[in-house]
Design a protein that fits this description.
Length: 259
C-alpha cells in the first residue's frame, strides 16, 4: 500500500511541478524555475518519508569544502537526485538526455542550468559536458555527477567514466565522493519501495592536482568501499564488495559488432 500511495504522489507532484516550472521558464533568469524545483524536491523527500516510510540521513556535510566543488555520487536509485539536491540551495547536475523525452522537461532542465549529455557517450557527449559544466563553474555552482553514468543494482557497479576527471582537471575543483544505500529502499526505478532509514554520506574531498589514473582509482575505491559498508550497516550482513557488470550502452555496442 505504501508503494501505491507514494507512486501516485510521485506522478501527481511531478506533473504539477513540471507544469509550474515550464510556465516559470517564461520569466527571465532561472530563479523562478529554481524556486519551484526546490519546492518539488522538498515535497518528494517529504513523500518518501511520510508515504513510503523512507527516511534520509545525510552524513558528512561537515567535510564539505568551501566554495564550488564537484560531487561524484553512487547511483542506485531514482531517488538519489532528490536526496542530494535537497542538501543544497543551488546545485547543477549532470543528467542523460533520456529526461528530455518527457514533455516540457527539456525546457525546464535548460532553464534550470542542468548539464544534459548524450547517453550514448562519445566525443560529442564529452564536448557538451565540458561546455555546460564550464558555465556552471563560472557561476560558482556545485556540480553533481554520477561517474558510472547508469543506475546500478545494490551490490553491482559499472565502469567509472572519465568525465568527472576532465571536470576535476579543467576547473581545478575538489571532488567530494558520495556513498549511499538508498537502493535498498528505492531500488533503481522499481515500483516497490521498502521503508527504513537510508543513508547518503559525503566523504573526504579529493584534492586537486592528481593524475587521471590515481584520481579515478581513489574515487572509485572511496565510493564503492563506503557504499558497501552502508549497505552492510543497513542489512546487518557482512561487507561485500560490488561486482562490476557491463553498462547497458556497452552491452548494446558489443551486440552490434559483427560476429
Amino acid at each position: 500500500m505504501r508503494s501505491v500511495l507514494f507512486n501516485l504522489a510521485y506522478w501527481v507532484l511531478s506533473i504539477l511541478y513540471t507544469l509550474a516550472a515550464a510556465f516559470a521558464a517564461l520569466a527571465p533568469g532561472r530563479k523562478a524555475v529554481q524556486w519551484i524545483i526546490r519546492r518539488y524536491v522538498k515535497r518528494m523527500v517529504q513523500a518518501m518519508r511520510v508515504l513510503a516510510g523512507i527516511h534520509i540521513e545525510a552524513r558528512g556535510k561537515d567535510r564539505l569544502p568551501e566554495g564550488a566543488f564537484i560531487i561524484a555520487a553512487k547511483h542506485q536509485s531514482w531517488g538519489d537526485g532528490f536526496s542530494v539536491y535537497d542538501q543544497f540551495d543551488d546545485l547543477a547536475f549532470v543528467t542523460g538526455d533520456h529526461l528530455e523525452k518527457f514533455p516540457l522537461l527539456g525546457t525546464v532542465l535548460q532553464k534550470l542550468g542542468a548539464i544534459v549529455v548524450n547517453n550514448c557517450g562519445g566525443h560529442e557527449a564529452r564536448k557538451a559536458l565540458a561546455q555546460s559544466a564550464a558555465i556552471a563553474h563560472q557561476q560558482g555552482r556545485k556540480i553533481l555527477i554520477y561517474p558510472e553514468g547508469n543506475l546500478a543494482k545494490v551490490g553491482e557497479k559499472f565502469r567509472y567514466r572519465s568525465g568527472v576527471w576532465h571536470m576535476y582537471r579543467d576547473f581545478d575543483m575538489p571532488v567530494v565522493p558520495l556513498a549511499t544505500n538508498l537502493g535498498l529502499f528505492w531500488p533503481q526505478e522499481d515500483f516497490r519501495k521498502n521503508p527504513g532509514k537510508a543513508t547518503i554520506e559525503f566523504l573526504d574531498p579529493i584534492p586537486t592536482g592528481l593524475p587521471k589514473a590515481k584520481f579515478m582509482a581513489r574515487l572509485e575505491d572511496a565510493i564503492e568501499t563506503r557504499t558497501a559498508e552502508l549497505v552492510a550497516e543497513a542489512t546487518g550482513r557482512p561487507v561485500t564488495p560490488a561486482v562490476q557488470v557491463p553498462a547497458p550502452d556497452e552491452v548494446r555496442k558489443a551486440a552490434a559488432k559483427p560476429a
